[in-house]
Amino acid sequence: MKIKTCSTCKWSVAEPRFPSNLLCVNPEVNRKDPFFLGSGERAGSYCVDEREKIWPRGVCGLRGAKYEQGDAIATTKAEALAPKAKPATKRARA
Q1: How many helices (H) and strands (E) does the chain have?
Q2: Which H/E stretch holds residue 47?
Q3: Which residues lie closer than 8 Å to 21 by C-beta, 6 or more apart?
Q4: Rg of the chain (C-alpha set)
Q5: Could you tell me the pLDDT band of residue 55, with boundaries at 50, 70 and 90?
Q6: Prediction pTM value
Q7: How many Cβ atoms are within 10 Å of 87's Cβ, its own excluded?
Q8: Cα-to-chain-centroid distance, residue 92
Q9: On the CB side of 32, how many CA atoms lie within 13 Å of its CA?
Q10: 1, 24, 39, 63: most buried, per Cβ within 10 A?
């Protein structure tokens, strides 16, 4: 089984004052969290708290069910939620 760490997940955002703490901004994980739904730029649940929850109470859980590979930790909630641009493809000449 591949180990899925929050530090490489595209939904992780570093907490502003404590960059070593990661926040999960995945909408599926936070769909019932009033702080995530009603807050401004930097909000989410602590990755540690979400990973220790057991299904069905926790959506991601210890196995990282909602993990998605990311390039680097996003610095803002908007950056994490923004759709990624698709790389340009070369067209074949006729």
Answers
A1: 3, 3
A2: helix 47-52
A3: 14, 15, 46, 48
A4: 15
A5: confident
A6: 0.67
A7: 5
A8: 37
A9: 4
A10: 24
Q: Which residue has the tokens 């790389």?
A: 87
CB-based contacts of 69: which residues, under 8 Å, 6+ apart?
A: 8, 9, 10
| Edge-to-edge strand ranges of the sheet holding 22-24 | 12-14, 22-24, 45-46
- 83: cis peptide before it, omega within 30°? no
Q: Where are the beta strands (DSSP E) in the chain?
A: 12-14, 22-24, 45-46
Q: Work out the end-to-end distance of the chain between its first and last CA atoms, rounded to an integer number of angstroms.
A: 46
**Residue labelled with tokens 């196995």:** 63
Query: What tokens does 67 get?
Result: 């993990």
